[in-house]
Amino acid sequence: MRANLSVIVPTFNEVRTIGAIVDRVLASPVVSEVVIVDDGSTDGTRSVLETLGKRQRVKVVWHDRNRGKGAAIRTGVEHVAGELTIIQDADLEYDPNDYELIVRQFEDPAVAVVYGSRRLLKTNPISSPSFFLGGVTLTWITNILFGTALTDEPTCYKAFRTSLLRSLPLRCTGFEFCPEVTALVAARGIRIREVPIRYYPRKTSEGKKIRAKHWFEAVATLLRLRFRRVAS
């Protein structure tokens, strides 16, 4: 497989992990570039990124203030050059060694979107009962509202043909990127293929930023996009 994958890394206050995850991403043979969007970090991440930005295949884009994960992803989409694009969190919960399996799915010209499912690999641990239940219920609500058959809607590993991703009318600014992009894809009748991926959850004390309020925001996003006319 040739390297044609752009990796968007939305980053906010990840000084402890950003260097390690970029090393792992660049080690993948299918990665053509890494686009890091620093979303107004204040913990020293910016100093690390100034060095990382000098490496080959690494682009760093700066937000002057914290705007949210969705806003960072939308900025990243403006800068990618690969035929395919995937989202990569700046922590170490997801393993870039899974990129090859994800990219291989796009050899089928009918495939436009691939999600890496944590649920399809039964040996994966769960971060906590509440996080696990939140993901399961969001997936169930998505499937009911949009007629999908997903096992892991809120997974970070969402990969797209870049032309499709750019065509979606994304408005998200925060963590609602996941339900918004899923709803927009499903509304166009595009089937989302899933493959199993590895998962190494971190705790809130280790920097995990998802909170209960984000579950309610995700549900509100799904309902809004289901019960209004979605641009196609």
Give the secondary structure arrangement, pairings included:
Blueprint (H helix, E strand, L loop, with lengths): L4 E7 L6 H9 L4 E9 L5 H8 L5 E6 L5 H9 L6 E4 L11 H6 L8 E5 L11 H18 L11 E4 H6 L9 H11 L4 E5 L15 H15 L6
Parallel strand pairs: 1-2, 1-4, 2-3, 5-7
Antiparallel strand pairs: 4-6, 5-6
Helix pairs in contact: 5-8, 7-8
Describe the structure.
- Helices cover 35% and strands 17% of the residues.
- By secondary structure, it is of the alpha/beta class.
- The protein has a 7-stranded mixed sheet, with helices on both faces.
- The chain has a single domain (5-226), classed as Spore Coat Polysaccharide Biosynthesis Protein SpsA, Chain A (Alpha-Beta Complex), CATH 3.90.550.
- The longest helix is centred in the middle third of the chain and has 18 residues, at 129-146.
- The mean pLDDT is 93.
- The protein is globular.
- Helix 5 runs parallel beside helix 8 and helix 7 (177-187) runs parallel beside helix 8.
- The protein is built from 8 helices and 7 strands, in the order E-H-E-H-E-H-E-H-E-H-E-H-H-E-H.
- Strand 1 (5-11), helix 1 and strand 2 form a beta-alpha-beta unit.
List keywords for this structure.
232 residues, globular, 17% strand, 7 strands
